[in-house]
Amino acid sequence: MAVSRSLRRTSPISIILAAMLAIGFFLFIFDPMAPPPVTAQQRQDDAATHPLSPPTKPFLKNQAQRADGYQAPPPVVHYSLNDLTSSEAAAEHGERILILTPMSRFYQGYWDNLEKLSYPHELISLGFILPKTKEGNAATTALQEAVAKTQSGPIDARFASVSILRQDFEPPILSQEEHERHKMENQKLRRESMSRARNSLLFTTLGPSTSWVLWLDADIIETPPTLLEDLTSHDKAVIVPNCFQRYFNEDTQMMDVRPYDFNSWQDSDVALNLAEKMEPDQILLEGYADMATYRSLMAYMAEGLEGSDPHNEVQLDGVGGTALLVKAEVHRDGAMFPAFPFYHLVETEGFAKMARRLGYTCWGLPDYYVYHYNE
Fold first, then answer.
1. pLDDT at 333 (0 to 100)
2. How far apart are CA 290 and CA 293, in angstroms?
3. 124 forms bridges with which residues in the sheet?
């Protein structure tokens, strides 16, 4: 027959241990010397001394040693990527966004627009990669000055971290003039080089706490301040807005807009047939009369600036990289920017094909606009 709990004999040792734990608990709670709660800003500052959280911050080794010279090893850190979210309420859930920019020239308009983004800056990390050329050196100097000014300014305006990389390979085209960059004969080498730069930047800066990656070109000088909130609200694995350019229209003698990025498209039978007849190392290019693909270009799907629906979505087979938002899990699953012909596509268009092969769908917003610098 079972003995009731009240009649069981309680060990004196158990009573003593329970009393000691209770006393210790009350001393801990009411100790006037107990440290204050850790603030979000303190956690952000402390992360810089941590080797992995996020890895884009410098790990400052603790130089304190015992008298015998022993120094404690770095901590072992556990991450659960199953707990990492990338949702339509990104800011509310505290989801971290990594903005990555390959840069050969520094435009102050780009940086000013970046500072105006309304998404909490403490959740934004920045990453840049620049070539080791004369122009790249000048851009690096200007970028470092802008970073130093922002990161020493008001705390709310500071970004969580900033990483600046220099390319370890020579760019195939030294001139960054727009007419030179877009020559058809320069495209294969240029875009393969851009792919290598993007991949170097991505693989170096993507950390275990990153939920989203925004690829933002260095010559995008105007976006809505709510760019990040707007794009993440669609909760798509890959999504890209329409990139336009402001210019002075000589015919109307007024400022006007025109499409700029033609790399966001829906495929056509003509383009697929062209690809089938190509040699393995040849690539399809968009926007050139010598290679008519008859794809449906998102640049021409825009209904107009007046009365259009910026939330209108269309499925895409190819995407441009001017302002490309990607869920970090897509990159973690292996989608990168092929620096080789992948189904006869490279760089961002090759990335879209790779993402689709991994089971993701790419989307575009024809009536949501970002603006490219007009040279």
1. 97
2. 9
3. 97
What does the block give as tokens for 207? 């950390």
**Average pLDDT along the chain:** 85
Examine residue 241 and say whether the peptide bond preceding it is cis (omega within 30 degrees of 0): no
- What is the rounded CA–CA span in Å between residue 96 and residue 211? 5
Coil, strand or helix: which one is 84?
coil
Q: Which CATH code is given to the segment(s) 83-372? A: 3.90.550.10
What is the DSSP-derived secondary structure letter of residue 2? P
Beta-carbon count within 10 A of 202 CB: 21
Instruction: Give the CA radius of gyration of the chain.
Output: 26
Identify whether the C-beta of residue 98 lies closer than 8 Å to the C-beta of residue 210: yes
Give the helix/strand (H/E) hosting 348: helix 347-357
Cβ atoms of residues 192 and 340 within 8 Å:
yes
Query: What is the pLDDT, as a whole number, of residue 31?
Result: 55
Interval 317-328 mean pLDDT: 98
Measured distance CA(108)–CA(173) in Å, rounded = 23
Q: Which two tokens stand for residue 297?
A: 């270009």
Separation in Å, CA 46 to CA 59, 60, 74, 168, 263: 10, 10, 14, 31, 41
For the chain, which residues make up each domain, given as ranges? Answer: 83-372
Kindly state the DSSP code that residue 310 receives in the 8-state scheme: T
pTM for this model (two decimals): 0.81
Question: What is the widest separation between alpha-carbon atoms in the chain?
Answer: 102
**Which amino acid type is present at position 22?**
A
For residues 98 and 213, is the Cβ–Cβ distance under 8 A? Answer: yes
- Contacts from 137-144 at CB under 8 Å and sequence distance 24+? 138/106, 139/103, 139/104, 139/105, 139/106, 139/218, 140/164, 140/166, 142/106, 142/108, 143/103, 143/106, 143/111
